[in-house]
Amino acid sequence: MKKLFPGGIMLLLCCTCWLLPAHAQFSLSAQLRTRTELRDGQGAPLPEGTSPAVFTSQRTRLSAGFTASRIRLGLAIQDVRVWGQDASTINRTTTANNNGLMLHEAWAEVLLTDTASARRRLLLKIGRQELLYDDSRLLGNLDWLQQARRHDALVLKYEQDAWMLHAGGAFNQNKEGAAGTVYDPTPPGNYPGNTNGGRNYKSLQFLYAGRKLHNGNVSFLFLADQFSRSYTDTVDNTPVTKWEDATRNRMTTGLYFNNTFRRVTLTAAGYYQFGKNVEGRNLSATLLSAAVQYACSKAFSIGAGADYTSGGGSGNTSHAFDPLYGTPHKFWGNMDYFYVASGFGNRGLQDYYLGAKLKAGSKWLLTAAAHEFFSASTLPSIDGRTTPSRRFGTEADLTAVFSLTPMIAFEGGYSYFRSTESLTSVGVKNISNPDHSSNWAYLMVSIKPSWLFK
Protein backbone atom coordinates (compact mmCIF):
# COMPACT_ATOMS: atom_id res chain seq x y z
CA MET A 1 0.00 0.00 0.00
CA LYS A 2 2.85 2.39 0.76
CA LYS A 3 4.17 1.92 -2.79
CA LEU A 4 0.77 2.23 -4.43
CA PHE A 5 -0.39 5.40 -2.65
CA PRO A 6 2.02 7.90 -4.32
CA GLY A 7 1.38 6.21 -7.65
CA GLY A 8 -2.34 6.57 -7.16
CA ILE A 9 -2.00 10.28 -6.45
CA MET A 10 0.06 10.78 -9.60
CA LEU A 11 -2.45 8.77 -11.65
CA LEU A 12 -5.29 10.92 -10.32
CA LEU A 13 -3.43 14.11 -11.19
CA CYS A 14 -2.59 12.84 -14.67
CA CYS A 15 -6.23 11.93 -15.30
CA THR A 16 -7.33 15.34 -14.05
CA CYS A 17 -4.91 17.13 -16.39
CA TRP A 18 -5.96 14.93 -19.34
CA LEU A 19 -9.61 15.85 -18.75
CA LEU A 20 -8.93 19.61 -18.59
CA PRO A 21 -10.52 21.55 -21.45
CA ALA A 22 -8.35 23.57 -23.80
CA HIS A 23 -6.92 26.80 -22.37
CA ALA A 24 -7.61 25.58 -18.83
CA GLN A 25 -5.16 25.04 -16.02
CA PHE A 26 -5.21 23.28 -12.67
CA SER A 27 -3.02 24.23 -9.71
CA LEU A 28 -2.31 22.38 -6.49
CA SER A 29 -0.42 23.61 -3.45
CA ALA A 30 0.15 22.47 0.10
CA GLN A 31 1.42 23.97 3.32
CA LEU A 32 2.81 22.39 6.45
CA ARG A 33 3.48 25.09 9.06
CA THR A 34 4.57 24.22 12.58
CA ARG A 35 5.13 26.87 15.24
CA THR A 36 6.65 26.23 18.66
CA GLU A 37 5.98 29.01 21.15
CA LEU A 38 7.13 29.98 24.61
CA ARG A 39 4.50 32.23 26.16
CA ASP A 40 5.59 33.99 29.32
CA GLY A 41 3.06 36.83 29.30
CA GLN A 42 2.01 36.82 25.65
CA GLY A 43 -1.34 38.63 25.21
CA ALA A 44 -1.34 39.85 28.83
CA PRO A 45 1.09 39.85 31.78
CA LEU A 46 0.99 36.74 33.95
CA PRO A 47 0.61 36.84 37.74
CA GLU A 48 3.86 36.53 39.66
CA GLY A 49 5.07 32.93 40.00
CA THR A 50 3.04 31.59 37.04
CA SER A 51 4.88 29.09 34.85
CA PRO A 52 5.19 29.95 31.15
CA ALA A 53 3.42 27.89 28.47
CA VAL A 54 5.28 25.91 25.79
CA PHE A 55 3.51 24.15 22.90
CA THR A 56 3.69 23.41 19.18
CA SER A 57 0.78 24.12 16.86
CA GLN A 58 0.51 22.95 13.28
CA ARG A 59 -1.38 24.08 10.21
CA THR A 60 -1.76 21.56 7.40
CA ARG A 61 -3.38 23.04 4.31
CA LEU A 62 -4.17 21.68 0.86
CA SER A 63 -5.25 24.21 -1.80
CA ALA A 64 -6.46 23.65 -5.35
CA GLY A 65 -7.34 26.05 -8.14
CA PHE A 66 -8.96 25.72 -11.55
CA THR A 67 -8.93 28.38 -14.28
CA ALA A 68 -10.78 28.21 -17.59
CA SER A 69 -12.66 30.56 -19.88
CA ARG A 70 -14.60 33.08 -17.75
CA ILE A 71 -14.27 31.12 -14.49
CA ARG A 72 -11.89 30.53 -11.60
CA LEU A 73 -12.41 28.10 -8.74
CA GLY A 74 -10.55 28.01 -5.44
CA LEU A 75 -10.56 25.40 -2.68
CA ALA A 76 -8.54 25.19 0.55
CA ILE A 77 -8.89 22.52 3.22
CA GLN A 78 -6.89 22.87 6.41
CA ASP A 79 -6.35 21.17 9.73
CA VAL A 80 -5.08 23.13 12.76
CA ARG A 81 -4.05 21.29 15.89
CA VAL A 82 -1.70 21.40 18.84
CA TRP A 83 0.76 18.55 19.03
CA GLY A 84 -0.60 15.99 21.48
CA GLN A 85 -4.19 17.22 21.73
CA ASP A 86 -5.41 13.97 20.16
CA ALA A 87 -4.88 10.47 21.51
CA SER A 88 -2.29 8.73 19.36
CA THR A 89 -4.19 5.44 19.07
CA ILE A 90 -7.80 6.50 18.53
CA ASN A 91 -9.54 9.78 17.74
CA ARG A 92 -12.86 9.22 19.48
CA THR A 93 -11.59 10.93 22.62
CA THR A 94 -10.90 14.15 20.72
CA THR A 95 -13.04 17.00 22.03
CA ALA A 96 -15.43 18.10 19.30
CA ASN A 97 -14.74 21.77 20.00
CA ASN A 98 -11.02 21.19 19.38
CA ASN A 99 -11.60 19.61 15.99
CA GLY A 100 -9.38 21.69 13.71
CA LEU A 101 -10.29 20.16 10.33
CA MET A 102 -12.21 22.74 8.32
CA LEU A 103 -12.98 24.16 4.89
CA HIS A 104 -11.01 27.40 4.75
CA GLU A 105 -11.93 28.46 1.21
CA ALA A 106 -14.40 27.29 -1.42
CA TRP A 107 -15.27 29.93 -4.00
CA ALA A 108 -15.97 30.55 -7.66
CA GLU A 109 -15.22 33.74 -9.59
CA VAL A 110 -17.14 34.28 -12.82
CA LEU A 111 -16.29 36.84 -15.50
CA LEU A 112 -19.62 38.47 -16.46
CA THR A 113 -18.34 40.75 -19.22
CA ASP A 114 -17.16 39.84 -22.72
CA THR A 115 -13.77 38.15 -22.73
CA ALA A 116 -12.72 40.39 -25.64
CA SER A 117 -12.71 43.43 -23.34
CA ALA A 118 -9.37 43.54 -21.57
CA ARG A 119 -9.73 47.01 -20.05
CA ARG A 120 -13.11 46.53 -18.36
CA ARG A 121 -14.03 43.51 -16.27
CA LEU A 122 -17.10 42.70 -14.19
CA LEU A 123 -16.65 39.67 -11.95
CA LEU A 124 -18.73 37.85 -9.38
CA LYS A 125 -16.93 35.96 -6.60
CA ILE A 126 -19.14 33.83 -4.37
CA GLY A 127 -18.50 31.34 -1.59
CA ARG A 128 -16.14 30.97 1.34
CA GLN A 129 -13.25 33.37 0.77
CA GLU A 130 -10.68 35.66 2.33
CA LEU A 131 -11.38 39.40 2.27
CA LEU A 132 -8.02 41.12 1.88
CA TYR A 133 -7.75 44.84 1.17
CA ASP A 134 -4.99 47.47 1.43
CA ASP A 135 -2.62 46.77 4.32
CA SER A 136 -5.03 44.33 6.09
CA ARG A 137 -5.67 46.79 8.92
CA LEU A 138 -9.47 46.49 8.70
CA LEU A 139 -10.00 43.63 6.24
CA GLY A 140 -7.36 40.91 6.22
CA ASN A 141 -6.90 37.15 6.18
CA LEU A 142 -5.15 37.08 9.61
CA ASP A 143 -2.65 34.57 8.24
CA TRP A 144 -0.48 34.74 11.37
CA LEU A 145 -3.20 32.91 13.28
CA GLN A 146 -2.91 29.25 12.37
CA GLN A 147 -6.63 28.96 11.50
CA ALA A 148 -6.60 32.35 9.68
CA ARG A 149 -9.87 34.12 8.81
CA ARG A 150 -12.46 33.67 6.07
CA HIS A 151 -15.97 34.90 5.26
CA ASP A 152 -18.97 33.26 3.60
CA ALA A 153 -19.68 36.09 1.21
CA LEU A 154 -20.50 37.40 -2.25
CA VAL A 155 -18.35 40.09 -3.89
CA LEU A 156 -19.17 41.91 -7.15
CA LYS A 157 -16.04 43.44 -8.73
CA TYR A 158 -15.76 46.09 -11.43
CA GLU A 159 -12.21 46.78 -12.61
CA GLN A 160 -11.03 49.17 -15.31
CA ASP A 161 -7.39 50.05 -15.90
CA ALA A 162 -6.06 51.34 -12.55
CA TRP A 163 -9.53 51.62 -10.96
CA MET A 164 -11.51 49.04 -9.01
CA LEU A 165 -14.92 49.06 -7.36
CA HIS A 166 -15.93 46.13 -5.16
CA ALA A 167 -19.27 45.60 -3.42
CA GLY A 168 -19.75 42.64 -1.10
CA GLY A 169 -22.13 41.15 1.41
CA ALA A 170 -22.65 38.25 3.80
CA PHE A 171 -25.60 36.85 5.75
CA ASN A 172 -24.94 34.26 8.47
CA GLN A 173 -27.25 31.62 9.90
CA ASN A 174 -26.54 28.70 12.23
CA LYS A 175 -28.52 26.16 10.20
CA GLU A 176 -31.39 25.72 7.76
CA GLY A 177 -34.61 26.90 9.40
CA ALA A 178 -38.34 26.72 8.80
CA ALA A 179 -39.10 30.16 10.25
CA GLY A 180 -37.33 33.28 11.41
CA THR A 181 -33.72 34.39 11.09
CA VAL A 182 -32.50 34.23 14.70
CA TYR A 183 -28.71 33.94 14.71
CA ASP A 184 -26.68 32.77 17.70
CA PRO A 185 -23.30 34.49 17.25
CA THR A 186 -21.57 32.50 20.00
CA PRO A 187 -19.04 30.08 18.45
CA PRO A 188 -18.70 26.57 19.91
CA GLY A 189 -15.94 25.94 22.40
CA ASN A 190 -13.81 28.44 24.26
CA TYR A 191 -13.16 30.72 21.29
CA PRO A 192 -14.00 34.37 20.57
CA GLY A 193 -16.28 35.18 17.65
CA ASN A 194 -13.65 37.38 16.05
CA THR A 195 -10.12 38.60 16.60
CA ASN A 196 -11.17 41.32 19.01
CA GLY A 197 -12.98 38.93 21.32
CA GLY A 198 -16.44 39.99 20.14
CA ARG A 199 -19.40 38.29 18.54
CA ASN A 200 -19.77 36.94 15.03
CA TYR A 201 -21.68 39.33 12.80
CA LYS A 202 -25.10 38.30 11.52
CA SER A 203 -24.70 40.23 8.26
CA LEU A 204 -22.14 42.44 6.57
CA GLN A 205 -22.01 44.77 3.55
CA PHE A 206 -19.10 46.77 2.15
CA LEU A 207 -18.18 49.07 -0.71
CA TYR A 208 -14.52 49.46 -1.67
CA ALA A 209 -13.21 51.89 -4.30
CA GLY A 210 -9.52 51.96 -5.09
CA ARG A 211 -7.04 53.33 -7.58
CA LYS A 212 -3.53 52.06 -8.22
CA LEU A 213 -0.82 54.71 -8.11
CA HIS A 214 2.63 54.57 -9.65
CA ASN A 215 4.06 52.80 -6.58
CA GLY A 216 1.07 52.31 -4.30
CA ASN A 217 -2.67 52.87 -4.07
CA VAL A 218 -5.39 55.07 -2.61
CA SER A 219 -8.80 53.73 -1.54
CA PHE A 220 -12.16 54.42 0.09
CA LEU A 221 -14.02 51.92 2.27
CA PHE A 222 -17.55 51.87 3.62
CA LEU A 223 -18.48 48.82 5.70
CA ALA A 224 -21.60 48.04 7.70
CA ASP A 225 -21.97 45.02 9.96
CA GLN A 226 -25.00 43.97 11.96
CA PHE A 227 -25.05 42.06 15.26
CA SER A 228 -27.88 40.07 16.86
CA ARG A 229 -29.69 41.71 19.75
CA SER A 230 -30.09 39.70 22.93
CA TYR A 231 -31.72 39.65 26.35
CA THR A 232 -31.18 37.59 29.50
CA ASP A 233 -33.77 35.01 30.51
CA THR A 234 -33.82 32.66 33.49
CA VAL A 235 -34.01 28.90 32.97
CA ASP A 236 -33.95 26.68 36.09
CA ASN A 237 -32.73 29.67 38.11
CA THR A 238 -29.79 30.10 35.71
CA PRO A 239 -29.31 33.24 33.54
CA VAL A 240 -29.43 32.30 29.84
CA THR A 241 -28.78 34.59 26.89
CA LYS A 242 -31.57 34.65 24.31
CA TRP A 243 -31.00 36.00 20.78
CA GLU A 244 -33.49 37.94 18.66
CA ASP A 245 -34.13 38.53 14.95
CA ALA A 246 -33.48 42.25 15.41
CA THR A 247 -29.95 43.58 14.95
CA ARG A 248 -27.74 46.54 15.84
CA ASN A 249 -26.05 48.27 12.93
CA ARG A 250 -22.46 49.52 13.00
CA MET A 251 -20.81 51.46 10.15
CA THR A 252 -17.18 52.24 9.37
CA THR A 253 -15.88 54.50 6.61
CA GLY A 254 -12.60 56.15 5.67
CA LEU A 255 -9.60 56.56 3.37
CA TYR A 256 -6.26 54.80 2.90
CA PHE A 257 -3.12 56.00 1.08
CA ASN A 258 0.21 54.34 0.33
CA ASN A 259 2.88 55.32 -2.18
CA THR A 260 6.65 55.26 -2.64
CA PHE A 261 8.47 58.42 -3.74
CA ARG A 262 12.01 57.38 -4.68
CA ARG A 263 13.37 56.09 -1.36
CA VAL A 264 10.51 57.25 0.87
CA THR A 265 7.28 55.30 1.39
CA LEU A 266 4.37 57.14 2.98
CA THR A 267 1.31 55.44 4.47
CA ALA A 268 -1.71 57.17 6.00
CA ALA A 269 -5.24 56.15 6.95
CA GLY A 270 -8.24 57.65 8.67
CA TYR A 271 -11.54 55.93 9.54
CA TYR A 272 -14.70 56.91 11.40
CA GLN A 273 -17.04 54.43 13.09
CA PHE A 274 -20.66 55.22 13.97
CA GLY A 275 -24.07 53.64 14.53
CA LYS A 276 -24.58 51.19 17.42
CA ASN A 277 -22.08 48.85 19.02
CA VAL A 278 -22.95 45.29 20.04
CA GLU A 279 -24.14 46.47 23.48
CA GLY A 280 -26.55 48.95 21.90
CA ARG A 281 -24.65 52.14 22.82
CA ASN A 282 -24.29 54.96 20.32
CA LEU A 283 -20.93 54.80 18.60
CA SER A 284 -18.61 57.66 17.59
CA ALA A 285 -15.01 56.47 17.16
CA THR A 286 -11.95 57.14 15.02
CA LEU A 287 -8.76 55.48 13.80
CA LEU A 288 -5.82 57.56 12.54
CA SER A 289 -2.55 56.16 11.27
CA ALA A 290 0.60 57.55 9.63
CA ALA A 291 3.97 55.97 8.85
CA VAL A 292 7.11 56.73 6.87
CA GLN A 293 9.70 54.22 5.61
CA TYR A 294 13.10 55.26 4.23
CA ALA A 295 15.19 52.90 2.09
CA CYS A 296 18.81 53.59 3.05
CA SER A 297 19.86 51.01 0.45
CA LYS A 298 18.33 48.09 -1.41
CA ALA A 299 19.02 45.91 1.62
CA PHE A 300 18.33 48.19 4.59
CA SER A 301 15.41 50.45 5.52
CA ILE A 302 14.21 52.28 8.62
CA GLY A 303 10.82 53.66 9.54
CA ALA A 304 8.63 55.33 12.13
CA GLY A 305 4.92 55.75 12.66
CA ALA A 306 2.03 56.46 14.98
CA ASP A 307 -1.42 54.90 15.37
CA TYR A 308 -4.39 56.28 17.26
CA THR A 309 -7.64 54.49 18.02
CA SER A 310 -10.16 56.32 20.17
CA GLY A 311 -11.56 54.77 23.33
CA GLY A 312 -13.67 55.34 26.40
CA GLY A 313 -17.06 57.03 26.23
CA SER A 314 -19.54 59.32 27.90
CA GLY A 315 -23.15 58.63 28.83
CA ASN A 316 -24.74 56.37 26.25
CA THR A 317 -22.02 57.06 23.66
CA SER A 318 -18.98 54.84 23.17
CA HIS A 319 -15.80 56.17 21.55
CA ALA A 320 -14.12 52.74 21.39
CA PHE A 321 -12.97 52.01 17.83
CA ASP A 322 -13.04 48.36 16.72
CA PRO A 323 -10.55 47.54 13.91
CA LEU A 324 -13.06 45.13 12.36
CA TYR A 325 -11.65 42.02 10.66
CA GLY A 326 -8.01 42.96 10.14
CA THR A 327 -4.64 41.62 11.24
CA PRO A 328 -3.70 43.19 14.61
CA HIS A 329 -0.49 41.14 14.87
CA LYS A 330 0.90 43.14 11.95
CA PHE A 331 0.47 46.55 13.59
CA TRP A 332 0.24 46.66 17.39
CA GLY A 333 3.19 44.56 18.50
CA ASN A 334 3.98 40.88 18.00
CA MET A 335 2.89 39.99 21.55
CA ASP A 336 -0.76 40.75 20.70
CA TYR A 337 -1.61 42.84 23.76
CA PHE A 338 -4.12 45.00 21.92
CA TYR A 339 -7.14 44.30 19.71
CA VAL A 340 -6.78 40.55 19.98
CA ALA A 341 -8.81 38.11 22.09
CA SER A 342 -7.30 39.49 25.32
CA GLY A 343 -9.12 42.81 25.76
CA PHE A 344 -7.91 45.97 27.45
CA GLY A 345 -11.09 47.66 28.56
CA ASN A 346 -12.04 49.53 25.36
CA ARG A 347 -9.71 52.36 26.36
CA GLY A 348 -8.36 53.04 22.90
CA LEU A 349 -4.68 53.05 21.98
CA GLN A 350 -1.81 55.34 21.08
CA ASP A 351 1.12 53.48 19.52
CA TYR A 352 4.40 55.23 18.62
CA TYR A 353 6.94 52.97 16.97
CA LEU A 354 10.32 52.71 15.25
CA GLY A 355 11.39 49.89 12.96
CA ALA A 356 14.23 48.61 10.81
CA LYS A 357 14.47 45.94 8.12
CA LEU A 358 17.60 44.25 6.75
CA LYS A 359 17.67 41.88 3.81
CA ALA A 360 20.96 40.05 4.25
CA GLY A 361 21.67 38.36 0.95
CA SER A 362 19.04 36.38 -0.89
CA LYS A 363 18.02 34.15 2.02
CA TRP A 364 17.91 36.23 5.22
CA LEU A 365 15.39 38.86 6.32
CA LEU A 366 15.83 40.53 9.72
CA THR A 367 13.35 42.98 11.28
CA ALA A 368 13.29 44.90 14.54
CA ALA A 369 10.66 47.19 16.06
CA ALA A 370 10.10 49.13 19.27
CA HIS A 371 6.64 50.28 20.43
CA GLU A 372 5.59 52.71 23.13
CA PHE A 373 1.93 52.26 24.07
CA PHE A 374 -0.46 54.69 25.78
CA SER A 375 -4.17 54.69 26.50
CA ALA A 376 -6.18 57.00 24.23
CA SER A 377 -8.60 57.87 27.06
CA THR A 378 -8.48 58.58 30.77
CA LEU A 379 -8.23 55.45 32.91
CA PRO A 380 -10.55 54.88 35.87
CA SER A 381 -9.14 55.88 39.26
CA ILE A 382 -7.59 53.19 41.41
CA ASP A 383 -8.72 54.29 44.87
CA GLY A 384 -11.33 56.87 43.97
CA ARG A 385 -8.75 59.65 43.99
CA THR A 386 -5.64 58.65 42.01
CA THR A 387 -5.89 58.65 38.21
CA PRO A 388 -3.41 56.21 36.66
CA SER A 389 -0.91 57.26 34.02
CA ARG A 390 -2.03 56.61 30.45
CA ARG A 391 1.24 54.83 29.65
CA PHE A 392 0.73 51.09 29.06
CA GLY A 393 4.31 50.01 28.46
CA THR A 394 7.11 49.30 26.00
CA GLU A 395 7.53 46.38 23.59
CA ALA A 396 10.57 45.27 21.58
CA ASP A 397 10.24 42.77 18.71
CA LEU A 398 12.97 40.89 16.82
CA THR A 399 12.27 38.56 13.89
CA ALA A 400 14.50 36.55 11.54
CA VAL A 401 13.44 34.64 8.41
CA PHE A 402 15.71 32.23 6.55
CA SER A 403 14.50 30.98 3.16
CA LEU A 404 16.29 27.70 2.50
CA THR A 405 14.51 27.33 -0.83
CA PRO A 406 11.47 29.09 -2.38
CA MET A 407 9.36 26.34 -0.78
CA ILE A 408 11.06 26.01 2.63
CA ALA A 409 11.40 28.80 5.20
CA PHE A 410 12.47 28.98 8.84
CA GLU A 411 11.32 31.88 11.03
CA GLY A 412 12.10 32.79 14.60
CA GLY A 413 11.30 35.69 16.86
CA TYR A 414 11.65 37.09 20.35
CA SER A 415 9.60 39.84 22.01
CA TYR A 416 9.80 41.57 25.37
CA PHE A 417 7.08 43.69 26.99
CA ARG A 418 7.63 45.88 30.04
CA SER A 419 4.16 46.75 31.31
CA THR A 420 3.00 49.41 33.77
CA GLU A 421 0.58 49.35 36.68
CA SER A 422 -1.89 51.13 34.41
CA LEU A 423 -2.00 48.24 31.94
CA THR A 424 -2.67 45.64 34.63
CA SER A 425 -5.16 47.79 36.59
CA VAL A 426 -8.81 46.83 37.15
CA GLY A 427 -10.10 49.03 34.32
CA VAL A 428 -7.72 47.58 31.72
CA LYS A 429 -6.19 44.05 31.82
CA ASN A 430 -7.28 43.48 35.46
CA ILE A 431 -4.41 41.24 36.61
CA SER A 432 -3.65 40.76 40.28
CA ASN A 433 -0.02 40.66 41.42
CA PRO A 434 1.30 40.91 37.86
CA ASP A 435 4.80 40.21 36.59
CA HIS A 436 5.59 43.36 34.62
CA SER A 437 8.38 41.70 32.58
CA SER A 438 6.86 39.51 29.85
CA ASN A 439 8.55 37.41 27.17
CA TRP A 440 7.51 35.55 24.06
CA ALA A 441 9.58 33.48 21.63
CA TYR A 442 8.73 31.25 18.68
CA LEU A 443 10.27 29.09 15.99
CA MET A 444 8.25 28.38 12.85
CA VAL A 445 8.90 26.08 9.92
CA SER A 446 6.87 26.60 6.74
CA ILE A 447 6.95 24.19 3.80
CA LYS A 448 4.88 25.19 0.75
CA PRO A 449 5.20 23.00 -2.35
CA SER A 450 3.10 23.89 -5.42
CA TRP A 451 2.33 22.44 -8.83
CA LEU A 452 0.76 23.86 -12.00
CA PHE A 453 -0.83 21.73 -14.74
CA LYS A 454 -1.86 23.14 -18.12
Could you characterize what this model shows?
This protein is mainly β and 454 residues long. It has a domain of 179 residues. Helix content is 4%, strand content 54%. The protein has one helix and 21 strands. The chain has an 18-stranded antiparallel β-barrel. Strand 2 and strand 3 form a beta hairpin. It is globular and about 75 Å long. The protein starts with a helix and ends with a strand. The N terminus is likely disordered.
What structural class do helix, strand and pairing data support?
Answer: mainly beta
Mean pLDDT: 90
Q: How many E strands?
A: 21
**What is the terminal-to-terminal distance?**
29 Å
Question: Low-confidence stretches at least 5 residues in length (pLDDT < 50)?
Answer: 1-10
The succession of helices and strands, N to C, reads HEEEEEEEEEEEEEEEEEEEEE
Q: Report helical residue fraction.
A: under 10%
The radius of gyration over CA amounts to 24 Å
Number of H- or I-type helical stretches? 1
Shape: globular
Sheet-strand content, in percent, reads over 45%
Q: How is the biggest beta sheet arranged? A: 18 strands, antiparallel, barrel
Keywords: Signal
InterPro entries: Alginate_export_dom (IPR025388)
Protein name: Alginate export protein
